[in-house]
Amino acid sequence: MSRLKIVVGLSGGVDSSVAALRLQQQGYPVSGLFMKNWIDFADESECTAIQDSQDAQAITHLLGIPFYEANFSTEYWNQVFEHFLDEYRRGHTPNPDILCNREIKFKVFLNYALALGYDLIATGHYARIEHSKERYHLLKGQDKNKDQSYFLYTLNQKQLSHTLFPLGDLKKPEVRHIAATAQFPNYNKKDSTGICFIGERRFKEFLSRYLPAQPGDILTPEGEFIGKHDGLMYYTLGQRQGLGIGGRKNSSGNPWFVVGKNLMQNALYVAEDNPHYWLRSQTLQANQLHWIAGKSPAFPYRCAAKIRYRQADQACTLTEITHDSIQVTFDLTQYAATPGQAIVFYQNDECLGGGTIITTNALGLLL
Fold first, then answer.
1. How much is the pTM?
2. Where is this site: Interaction with tRNA (predicted)?
3. Which long-range contacts (CB under 8 A, 24 or more apart) does 240-246 make?
4. Under CATH, what is the fold of the domain 278-365?
5. pLDDT of 362 higher than 80
C-alpha cells in the first residue's frame, strides 16, 4: 500500500466519488473532504448544499474512509465572488470556475490538506497530469467532450505536484458505469452546472441582489431604438435567449442576438443576422497571463487556443506586447470573443496556460 496520503475533494457528485474509489482501489490511504463555500440561508441553494454534503458522506461511509467538512466561505467571498461582481460592474462576463479552481480548490483546499498532514489532493476533473523533463505537464482529459483543462490553466508546478486527476483516462459513461457497479447512490446524479459552488439559480434575480440594475435602451447597429434592457450585466455577446424582443414590423423574423454593449451610454446592441460582423474578430489582446511551465514561450509563438469551453482548438500566433500582455492573431475569424473570459493555449493535448481577454478588433466591443 502506498504511504502517500490523499484527500479527495468530494462534491457529492459522481465524478469525485469515483475518483475516491479509484484511488482506494490503487492502494492509497484516502479521505474525503466536502467544501462548503457559499452560505446564504435565504437562498434556495442552501438545501442543495446540505444534500450534496449528505451524498459525500454516504460515499465515504460506503468506502469506509474518513470524512471532513471544511467551510471556506470567507475565502470564497473575498477571493472569488467579489472579483465576479467587479467584472460584471465593468461590463465583462467573468468565468468564476477558473478563479474558483485557482483560489479555492488548488490553493485554500490544497493548503488545508497539507496542513492536515496529507501529501496529495485529488478531484474529479477530466484532465491528466504527466511528469517529464523535470516538470509537470497538464494534459487534456481523454474524454474530449468533458475535458476540463480549460478551467485549470492557472495551475502552477507546485499545485500540479500535489494533485491527482484519477478520471483523466476515463469517459463519462465509464465513470457512471463504475459508480453503478459500486452501488453508489449518486451514480445517476445530474451533473452540476451554474456558478461554481453557488449552483443553478435564476441568474438575473440572483445577480440583482448584489448589483443594482440599470435599465437602458436596446438599439440596432444602425441606432434604431427597439426596446429596453434590464441592465447590461445580464447580457452576453452572442446571446440569443431572454432579450424580450417580440415580433417587429419590417423584421426578417430571424432571432435577435446581442452584438455589442456601450457602457458609457448604457446601450445594448442587437441584430438579426448571425454571425453579425460586429462579433467577428481575428485578433485580440489578453493579459493576466499564466504559464504552467513557470515561464512564457519565446515570441512570436505558434500554438492553438480556445476562447470558450468546448470550442475546437483554433490555430493562432502569439506576439508579446508587454511582459504581461500579448496579442493573439488567429488563422480564422473568431465569433463573440468576450472581454473578461479566458483564452487558453494548447500544443496538441498539452495545456500551456492562458490569460484574460481584454480587447478584440470586433466592432461591437469597441463601442
1. 0.91
2. 125, 341
3. 240/274, 242/204, 243/218, 243/270, 245/218, 245/270
4. Elongation Factor Tu (Ef-tu); domain 3 (2.40.30)
5. no
